Amino acid sequence: MIKGYVSLCVGILSWFFISGCNSDTAAEVNQEGQNAQVSEAVVIAKSDVAKAIEQALENSDFRLLHSKGRRIVVPGLETHELSLLKLQCGLKPMQNSGDVLKSDEQRQQQKQQYFFAQQYNQAIYEKCLENLTQAG
Predict the structure, then answer these.
(1) CB–CB of 64/125 below 8 Å?
(2) What is the pTM of this model?
(3) What is the per-residue DSSP string for 59-127?
(4) Quick one: which of 118, 72, 65, 71 has its CA closest to 94?
(5) Is 89 within 8 Å of 105 (Cβ atoms)?
(6) Contacts 24+ apart (CB under 8 A), 46-50
(7) Pair 85, 64: CB distance under 8 Å
(8) What are phi and psi of 91, to 5 degrees?
(9) Cβ neighbours of residue 117 under 8 Å, at least 6 residues apart?
C-alpha cells in the first residue's frame, strides 16, 4: 500500500516536471477545484473520525480497523506486528475494503477509507495501550 502511494506521488511529481511552465488557465482552475474537494473531504473525514473514536471509547471497543483482501493491512500501524495488534486490541474489518478495484471512484473511496482508518487506528491504539496498562 505504501509502495503504491509512493509510486503515485513520484508519478505526479514527474508529470509536473515534464509539464514545465505551461500555464493553462482551465487546468489551473480544475486543479484548484480538486484541491478544494480534497481539503473538504479531509475535514469531513476528521470529523467522522472524531465521532467514531468517541463512540468506540464509550463502548470500550479498542479493536483496530483492517483491510479485507489477500493481505491484511492495519492502516497507520503497518510497521507493527499484526499478531501482536490482534492480541492486544483486536481487529475488525473495514467495510468494502477489498483489494480488487474496478473504477476510479472505488480507488478514491479506498483512499478515503484508508485515511479514516489511519487516523482512527492511531488514536484507538494509544487508548488500547493505556487500557492494557491500567488493567495490568
Answers:
(1) yes
(2) 0.64
(3) TT--PEEE--SSS---TT-TTS-HHHHHHHT-EEEPTT--S---SHHHHHHHHHHHHHHHHHHHHHHHH
(4) 65
(5) no
(6) 46/119, 48/116, 49/116, 49/119, 49/120, 49/123
(7) yes
(8) -130, 150
(9) 65, 66, 67, 74, 75, 76, 94
- Phi–psi pair at 73, nearest 5 degrees: -125, 135
Indicate whether 17 pLDDT > 80.
no
- The pLDDT tens digits of the residues spanning 52-65 come to 999 999 999 999 99
Polymer length of the chain: 136
Residue 110's CB is within 10 A of a number of other CB atoms, namely 18
Residue that has been written with the C-alpha cell 508529470 in this structure: 15
Asked if residue 129 has pLDDT above 60, the reply is yes
